[in-house]
Amino acid sequence: MVQKFIIGVACGFYLFTSAMPARAALTVTQPTAATVVAAGDDYATQVLGNAWDMNDAVDIDTEESQYVSPQAFASGVFSGTTTANGANIYPLFMGYASSVNLSRGANFPIDTSHYRYVTYKLRVNQASQPQFTRVVGIVDGGSYGATPKATVVESLFTAQLPNNVWTIVSFDMVTNNDNQFYHWTDFPQLTGLRIDPATTNAAGAYAGVQFNIDWIRLTAPATAAQKTNVQWTDSGSATTYTVSAIDAGSVSYVLGSGLSGTSYLADTSFLSPGQYTIKVTRNSDSVSASSGTFRINNPAAIAMTAPSVRGEQSLNFAQTIVGNPWGPITASDFVPGIGVRNFTNVSYTNPAGSFYGRPINGDPGWFFNLGGQTINTSLYRSLCFTLEVFGQRSVGGGSVARLFWGPSTGVLTTSLPIPLDTGLSEYCIADVAAYAPDPAAPASGGTWSSAAQAALRMDPDELTPANGCGTPQTCFDVQLNSLILSPFAHANPNYTFAWTLNDTDNSSVTLSLALDADTTPGNGNEFQIYSQLVSNGAGTFAWPGTATIPSGTYHVLATVDDGVNVVNQYAGGVIIVTSDDIFRNGFETP
User: Fold this and answer.
1) Which of 152, 245, 440, 523 is deepest in the core (most CB within 10 A)?
2) In order of start, what are the domains of the chain with their CATH numbers?
3) Spans in the chain with pLDDT lower than 70
């Protein structure tokens, strides 16, 4: 199969030769310095709400990288060094099969009928061996264990990458497939996206490769508004032309070649927002001319902070019903006598307000003190905990937490495992009831929502400490800062919505809020409740409620329009809208 890819490399040659007299015959008249082009429809921007611009550590799931060490983010660039052939990184990790899958990929799958182009700016530094790169789409957490072949979509490799030179690489995942595997559109959704930044076919001993990634984009086919109108005049001989975009770092990306005439509607939707110039080259004699510097718009980023995946934490179960929140942690947060299981060296001051202990075997855990109350599981469904398990992470070896619930401490249902990260992290389950119990364990307590629960236990991990271990890392010490069990957000009838807005190109944008029965923007199910020009930073809207919206459970859709791009984002948690008098204070009380 013919390999289909585009590679552009940094080139400063035109900067010098454009001053030669022969260049005067070729002039680029559009775009100009005043031109602003809409950014392409990018998955990370539109669906995740956070572009893969390498400006923060969530852009690559470094926990899941393979054969890459060390890894670092600095000044908007992700860097790593490969340690073996087959090294790979995940801008979107699919999570693990048979788990409480909290991964972004599981929560925000890729619509393969909409998004298809993967483009990234890459530099590899390894002169002794040729290097190549490719992209892999992954169906789900069980893809690599599937039979008869892995349910993945692999692109072909690029041609050999230039050494120590920034390159923009683009793949059309619909047409660029390794036919040993599936095709991009064989699956309606993919939950993982993997990049193999540097792979070699050289014989002999493997040499590690230092690589850098500036940005990654997964885009949909461009609309007319996302293309750049390029125009030029040429008094020279008739010929064909090549049109390229040059970014602020002098890296070139070919937008079109073999073009006739003196205009071209160039597809710039693959490119990251920022400053660019257009270079038009006469192919017969390589004469070139450049445009003024124009801008690809940087869309606004909106994140709803209320409602959120955490639910309504101010009305959490332990605080509202028990009268003693489970965080900051004290000894009274656990059932007297049996609440702390299989720990030694217990402390509540290391640091203050946390539990710190050393497991004595592979089954440590806690029974939380319900104060003689039962959990109304139809109401309390959002659960977050902040935890660290010290030592080497191994999900397959036991770096997983679990929840247990039931009518008593001796009759419990076991949740699926919750994979852990390295370091102190917050884990939030938007709806505990959405996850079935572990089918391999007894379900004596029923499903979460089958009945009120009188016992709640959590195990932080299933790692077995080494015999005679002496350090926090080898003993797998545990720190627990909080466990918070909350109801969904509830408008009865009023609610205060909150958000954070960031737009690097504008000080204010138009924000609209709508209540949506599903998570498909623009399909007619939305009830708009707010539209206003808002400024960057934190903002709120105190909604008084309205009788015209039927009672029910809704997703909250935030739409921001900066005049060039429109971005839609859903809040991480739902909101219940009701006009019933049962909840006079917003939630039921004991």
Assistant:
1) 245
2) 6-39+222-296 (2.60.40.10), 43-219 (2.60.120.260), 313-487 (2.60.120.430), 490-577 (2.60.40)
3) 1-24, 579-590
